[in-house]
Amino acid sequence: SGLLPPGLNAIMGPTGSGKTSLLDVLAQRKDPTGLKDGIVLLNGERPPIDFRLMSGYVVQDDVVMGTLTVRENLAFSANLRLSTKKHNAEARKLKVNDVIEQLGLQACADTPVGNEFVRGVSGGERKRVNIGMEMILDPPVLFLDEPTTGLDANTANSIVLLLYKLASGGRNIIMSIHQPRYSIFSLFDRLLLLNKGDIVYRGPAKQAVDHFKSIGFSCPRFHNPADFFLDIVGGDVNTARLIGRMNSESQDNEPAENAIVYVFVDAVWKRAARTGTNEIAVAMEEDEQSDNSEKLLESQWKLVERFWVLILATVVRRTGLNILRNPMTSFVQIIIMIIFAVLIGLIYFQSDTSFKSGIQNRAGCFFFLVMTQVMSNLSALELFINNRAHFIHESASGYYRVSVYFIAQIIADLIPNRLIPNTFFSVIIYFMIGFQMQVEKFFFFLFALVLTAVCASSMAFLVSASVRVFAIANAVVALPYILMMLFGGFLVNIGTLLDWLEW
After folding, report:
1. Signal sequence: where (predicted)?
2. How many other C-beta atoms are found inside a 10 Å radius of the C-beta of residue 493?
């Protein structure tokens, strides 16, 4: 149990202590199935069922689109999460500019965030963009899962200082953090210290040192309290004894490793009883007295009422920009198809129509054309695997529905990666091989190749949406491709197969 009032609230603990799990439960981001009991109260009342839509949540791993600029990423969040009734286009633009100013991102506002192909902003600026995506909503509660991960000490300090300034304005900021430096620890208003799911300290961060001293663990001078707490709470008995000796305290009754946590947990309840803090009990009593049955079913924080087509257009635009600005998934695909077309065209250049060699060459050509379409569209495997983290976070935050995301991805992928490359491919190869010079037959040829590419891509989309690892997806999608190749009628006469295989 615990109380997290407005301000900068930190959840600390060793790896595996339950920081992220607790954060997910508080933010309603975790499936409640399996939780034994307990409730979360917001201002003494049950939070609405869609509380996750009114709160902000910054995940540990950055989930901004690297090919888009800082302003474009923030505008994407504003266009999908702000009501069109209350915020017109100009109001959303002003909101984006206001968030950029709050986060100090003016200098890099029109710079791409960056990915493995595009050089972008620094790590600290990237983290600020992640925070800005949630700040668009002006959330009363902002959750952050280890926001300093992967940042140097100075950048981490600036990020937490920014959060401190935001919290000073009356916002409730709840963050999990692993091992902060002292300058960061000194900014915390309230501290919740965990170990293996147990609370070993809760209360004002500035009183934590005195609390630990009162139960026999004194933090020496010039030692970072955060490091000291984690060493002791993590069960590092040797460190506890060494610290004790440094403070010249008796170690006659040194605690056993398994008993340290129970000493701390017991001290939590004794401290609560001694100080007479009954805020949680009062909140629980108010919840029992009030009728919250309807509040669980209705909330004023609904999914923003927007036209489905406008949402789809926004997501399609973002996906399209990402594809066009990523050379490995757009221009390279066209170049590869042109190279394949020239190579096949040279092999079967102006093929004759005689019965012997002509039939064999053209049958082989058709088989090779189909296989080229299938294998060249394996890039579709990356579509949902690469963007899975974006989808999970954005759909949980109410950006869009699953159907919108799926349709947008398909539309934005098929045109630049399947239709355009196939058009180049067909124009080159049709005339090099010397097929019949009739307009309707050329377009029938193009239509057949495009359908083949769409079918191959659709199977790749299915596998991509089903697995998380590209290597597994690559192995799974090869099975239906090989089966179709074997039974396509080119490599074996279907009439000669066994009866039970002939179908």
Report:
1. none
2. 8
